[in-house]
Amino acid sequence: MENAPKPLLRALSGEAIWPPPFWLMRQAGRYLPEYRELRAQAGDFIRLCTNPALAAEVTLQPLRRYGMDGAILFSDILMLPWAMGQPLRYAEGEGPLLEPIRDAEGLAKLDPAGAAARLAPIYETVSRVRAGLAQEAPKAALIGFAGSPFTVACYMVEGRGGGEFAHARRMAYADPALFGKLIRLLVDSTTEYLLAQAEAGAEALMLFDSWAGLLSPAQFRRWSIEPSAAIVRNIRKVRPDIPLIGFPRLAGPLLPEYAQRTGVSTVAMDTAMDPRWAATAVPAEVALQGNLDPQAVVAGGAAMEAEARSILAAMRGRPFVFNLGHGIVPPTPPEHVAALARVIRMG
Q: What kind and span of H or E run contains 88?
């Protein structure tokens, strides 16, 4: 059964199938009581991400509950800068805290050559999940992922999450040579990271550019589209057939240009995107993914169902994967996710 066509891979590769396959961003996470148990067992978020047995179990948990068509690797976009030696910790209530990189000296401290050894547990997690899917959910596909260079650079320069990432955006304007050097380093290391995930068993790959919407159109083209396109080209040289999903959050009217110029096979819509517009504006051969508001799932009931059905109506007849417009949030009642799954399955 491992070789049977998987609905998610068919949709990501441009086939319009109905009902559409679905998975949810951050589907393995804090809204599930079984996740919270394992998180407490690990004691530390980085330990959880780098413990293959626990990370694989967390990745598989939502599929056991809801039967998603995709399992996304449980990890974090900041594992890559961590693996290159940038000090990182996760503070309760504050999110990630890094030692900021604000100059050439800080950039020189990074050790991309040493990243592979520190990322080895994550590749083992990928292998374990792929084996687990073959046993438990043979029609579900495994998605590997990384942060896009601009978004990862935001955290690396700023030293924390949240806010407007003023230091990072200012560096892009004031010292584009230095910022460009960081971006090029991330293009190369992200390519290697994703190819290693594919080698370990990932069947599709996703690039999260969560903060792309902070950029002006010219900066968006330079720091979001161009680096993402470079990664896609690099991966396609080695793995020409692997589906690639791009998520340029809050790209707005630049979404079709992102889809065309990056070469991704699927583009993910954020919550603010009108799916009816995207259905006609994005080239028909590029699949769309999205884009239910995570807060609608918290609310549940008739409002959630109406929103979900509106998205489904806009996407019928087109290559499409149902998802959220951003990650699922901790207050989400698990039974609301079950109700959403039923609506999607009805088409």
A: strand 88-91
Look at the block and give the residue holding tokens 């008739």.
302
pLDDT value of position 163 = 87
Out of 31, 35, 123, 155, pick the active-site residue.
155
Q: For residue 189, how far is the Cα from the chain centroid?
A: 17
Q: Examine the residue annotation and report whether 66 is marked as an active-site residue of this protein.
A: no
Cα–Cα distance, 39 to 29 (Å, whole number):
9
| Count of alpha carbons within 13 angstroms of residue 49, beta-carbon side | 17
Q: Are the beta carbons of 143 and 71 closer than 8 angstroms?
A: yes
- CA Rg, the chain, in Å? 19
The encoded tokens of residue 119 equal 């990322």
- 47 has catalytic annotation: no
- Give whole-number Cα distances, 140 to 64, 134, 137, 276, 298, in Å: 11, 8, 6, 27, 25
Give the type of residue at 17. Answer: I
Distance (Å, whole) CA 254 – CA 260: 10
- Catalytic residue (choose from 10, 26, 222, 318): 26
- Residue 164 predicted with pLDDT over 80: yes
What does the H/E/C string look like for 288-303? EEEEECHHHHHHCHHH
pLDDT in tens, 84-118: 999 999 988 778 999 999 999 999 999 999 999 99
Annotation marks residue 155 as catalytic: yes
- pTM score: 0.97
Catalytic residue flag (residue 261):
no
Give the count of alpha carbons within 13 A of 264, CB side only: 33
Strand partners, 142: 71
User: Catalytic pick from 31, 35, 76, 130?
Assistant: 76
- 193 counts as catalytic: no
List the catalytic residue out of 10, 39, 130, 222. 39
pLDDT reported for residue 1 = 41
Single out the catalytic residue among 30, 47, 261, 309: 30
Confidence of residue 3 (pLDDT cuts 50, 70, 90): low
Give per-residue pLDDT as tens, 254-290. 999 999 999 999 999 999 999 999 999 999 999 999 9
